[in-house]
Amino acid sequence: MIELRFNAIKPNGQAISGTMTTATFAEGKKKIKALAEKNQLKIKSIEKKVAFLYKVRRGNEKPITGEQRAFTKAEVITALQKLGYTVVSVNKKLLDFSLKPPPQEIVSFVKLSADLLEQKLPFSEILTLLMNDLENKTLRDTLKQINNELKKGSDSEVVFMKYQGVFGKFTAYMLGLASKSGNMAEIYRATAKFLERQMEFRKNLRSALITPIITLFVLFLAVLFYVGYIFPETAKLFLKFDIPLPPMTAFTLVMSDFLIVNWWLVLLIMIAPPILLIYYGKTSKGRLVLDRFMMKIPVMGSLIHKTSIEVFCRVFYTLYTGAAESIEPIRIAAEASGNKYFENQIKTIAIPLMIKKGAGVTESFEAAGVFTETAINRFHSGEETGTIKNTALQLANYYESETVFRLKNVIEMIQVFIAMVIMIVMILLTLVSAETATISPKSPVM
Hints:
By secondary structure, this protein is mostly helical. It is built from 18 helices and 6 strands. Helix content is 70%, strand content 10%. The strands form 2 sheets. The chain has a 3-stranded antiparallel beta sheet, covered by helices on one side. A 3-stranded antiparallel beta sheet has the order 5-4-6, with helices on one face. A hairpin with a 5-residue loop joins strand 1 (2-9) and strand 2.
């Protein structure tokens, strides 16, 4: 996220300015122009807050260097002079970008904050304490800016949402909401649990799907290299001396010739589908279709589906306060699920049923068609007894235990399958090589 400041003139000649936080400069510029047209403003300038590197000294002391974000160079100079420094130099940072902190750093920050909040430490002191200990520069600078803005009395939810590019949309929302709630430590603890589960699931999913795919792809390339380059060099020597080839060797040579002549077609088949799939997955419709498909694939689909329900239930438990205020927790929990199809069904079917027709939680969830029969039965029981909040937590813990156990079994099964594929490929290559080794020239006729 970047911060923009615009300076404009009102129809009566009055000069005004304002700030806006957006994902990109182009998006911010578009929003400012729309705002100007709506309010009949004449835009004079649009400035982006960037980083400046400064060098200052106080009296005869050794010069101090540092970094400060501001809209203009003049603002930095003025601020440093007010602090009693003599400005030696202030220059705009050439490479003004920062990488998103790794998930482990964010989880660590949220967990430590939850521990310290339970010890009744003021939040401003917690931020100051963690700022000095965090190793990631981006996260450290972000917390510094958040602390400064909160001390000025800014709304916590607005402040944290400004840095959703660092924390992620859901995490930023939860941390901002926590500062305004009466159960800050509980929300931080629940957010840390959510982030840990998300990180663990992605790690296991990578082990279950991505690593095997890469292994098979590398194996495929190795076979192509052998069949397309190494093997023909040997086999064509026999053809040169008019020696007949055995069946497997002859077939492999035909395949080799096909690959050499049509290499561009093979390359296109290998590269085009993944690129098209990635591009399609970035569109809203594509993400919706792919996420729905992911929930239906054999073995892994059930795990992905149940993990989405687990995350939904965990977030719903954290935010739910009563039946009269259930819409917003359901919406946020749906967004946190990480599955666009799951989220879309909740937002377009379940929530409208609750708002327009006054349907109950169980009836609405069943109509959405994304909850398992077990989840629907448990929600029904919880709704009848008035314990729907605790029911959501029980479901989250149940599906966490089930998915963790089943995912380990799936990973082991996939690893065995990959080992078998490698073994079969190696056996076939060995048989072809062995058959080639048995070829012998005809005895010369005397």
